[in-house]
Amino acid sequence: MTDLDLAGKRVLIREDLNVPIDDGRITSELRILAALPTLKLALEKGAAVMVTSHHGRPKEGQWSQADSLAPVAQRLSELLAIEVPLIKDWVGGVEVKPGQLVLLENCRMNVGEGKDDEALSRQYAALCDVFVMDAFGTAHRAQASTHGAIRFAKVAAGGPLLMAELDALAKALEHPARPLLAIVAGSKVSTKLELLSSLVSKVDQLIVGGGIANTFIAAMGHSVGKSLVEPDLIDTAKQIMADAKARGADIPVPTDVVVAPKFAADAPATVKAVDAVDAEDMILDIGPDTAARYAELIKNAGTVVWNGPVGVFEFDAFGHGTETLARAIAASKAFSIAGGGDTLAAVDKYGIADEVSYISTGGGAFLEFLEGKELPAVTALKQRAG
Ligand code: 3PG
To answer: Does 126 lie in the same domain as 84?
Structure first.
């Protein structure tokens, strides 16, 4: 898009403005702020700008207040300092003049959006002279407003945000400064199995955290008490460790952990050696020695990819591990990239957003890229580019 002459052209931009909204109030505007430079650029270039996005997963063919983009239109008006009307029925045609910007109501309310319907994709394409795909966060979905519109638009281009995301991810994974260290945490190995299997063939160190680490701790032969664990995946965890070892990579496991008798903000926190966890204990964080050891690895890394908090950081008593790692990333000279909803909440909580080299707006798309999967919208753009 950056190279295109957009003066006087009708430009339809797909953004991912799927921001959390609580009772009409936007609780994180990261995705709006990330899209802003693209929208400003299109206006500066003299385009008549239409912006489309989904919000949530509403039922197609029905309007719902909860998934309306009205709060986003309001916020965009403030940030761009121009009026940003929200257009409700827009598939058949949109009135917009050069220098104006309109937000189109949630595209997932249109029948056919989710199944990448060709007729709907063609209708989207017919609205514009140029279609710009800028929604990295939705690039893993083959839907009418992503993959479909790219196929049928007169001209289709990648937007600056999408390009920046792909560049940052390529820098981290395709030609990383080494050592390349990844932090993968979350409640279950099963939901991140593809990610772990893919990263283990690329990284020099793989730090696992949260419930995922418990399964690895169990694979080392230690008791994890009442902690969240997936017994069926203990052999898989052993295999991942063996694969890492075979290529000289390291999966460090905790030597100490923070335990509590129950999952609660006010539960008493006790630090224990990893081989001293009792039957009644729940592991809710890594211990201070482990956190310090991991921080040292981060300090010496060339690249850090971070997805997932290593403890229950929402409860302050169990946030020390995540905070230590967050601060180590902030202080490290490594190229660092963070993505995923919980990770960004941790970045926010510890105030390190400015110190992370790149914060991805993608959740599922970020994970799928890390897993080495093709993102359908990116593939479609490449096909259009020949
Ligand atoms: C996200 O929040 O990850 C993206 O906006 C995609 O949303 P989806 O999972 O509902 O497609």
So the answer is: yes
**Structural domain harbouring 104:** 10-159+376-385
Among all residues, which ones are annotated catalytic?
31, 188, 341, 364
ipTM above 0.90, yes or no: yes
Buried (b) or exposed (e) across 47-60, using 16+ Cβ within 10 A? bbbbbbbbbeebeb
Determine the length of the chain: 386
Q: Establish if 343 belongs to a structural domain.
A: no
Q: Render pLDDT for 312-361 as a digit per residue (tens, 0 to 9).
A: 999 999 999 999 999 999 999 999 999 987 899 899 899 999 999 999 99
Alpha-carbon distance of 205 to 241, in angstroms, equals: 11
Q: How far is the CA of 278 from the centre of ligand 1 (A)?
A: 39
57 is in an annotated binding site: yes
Closest-CA residue, ligand 1 atom 9, reads: 364
Residue 19 CA to ligand 1 center (angstroms) comes to 10
Mutate to test the pocket of ligand 1, among 15, 30, 109, 138 (most ligand atoms within 8 A of CB): 138
Contact 131, 122 (CB under 8 A): no
